[in-house]
# Entry
Amino acid sequence: MALLNILHFPDPRLRTVAKPVEKFDDSLRQLVSDMFETMYEAPGIGLAATQVDRHIRLLVMDVSEDRDRPRCLINPEIIDADGDEEMDEGCLSVPGFYEKVRRAENIRVRAHDEFGEQHEFDASGLEAVCIQHEMDHLEGKLFVDYLSNLKRNRIRSKLVKQQKKAG
Ligand code: QAP
Ligand code: CO
# Structure
């Protein structure tokens, strides 16, 4: 088990487009386990491999109150979407900032688990928002990209200042 380093906006590595997972082996399962540990410790409700500088199509999440429903999605696809909804979002890669983002309200998802089994399920509300947010990371996209240039630039300069202070 290991805690992984989380990249912070505006690190250019967060803009990498992730590649599909091809081998469902022990090293993949080790990464999944380290990502869960990192997410729970943060604490966060979702973490994409991109955020820990591993550029493969993998995300972990747990939107349950009791933090006892870990879910791992590999090579996820949204195969249906309807409705829209605005929710306050944050991101472990954009610490301290929360803004409203509009996304699909209900989605149908197809993904593999860490053993290579394919699953399909419906998600709504926070779970659906979290999946869409984490899938954006795999495309090199961040929730701040949905904000005005003014808001995004303010967030960028505050984080750059903090990162300089922290060394
Ligand atoms: C994505 O985000 C998400 O700023 C997951 O200081 C968030 O786990 C999807 C976090 C909201 C839907 C709604 C953020 C922790 C965690 C921070 C997270 C912070 C500490 C964010
Ligand atoms: Co995020």
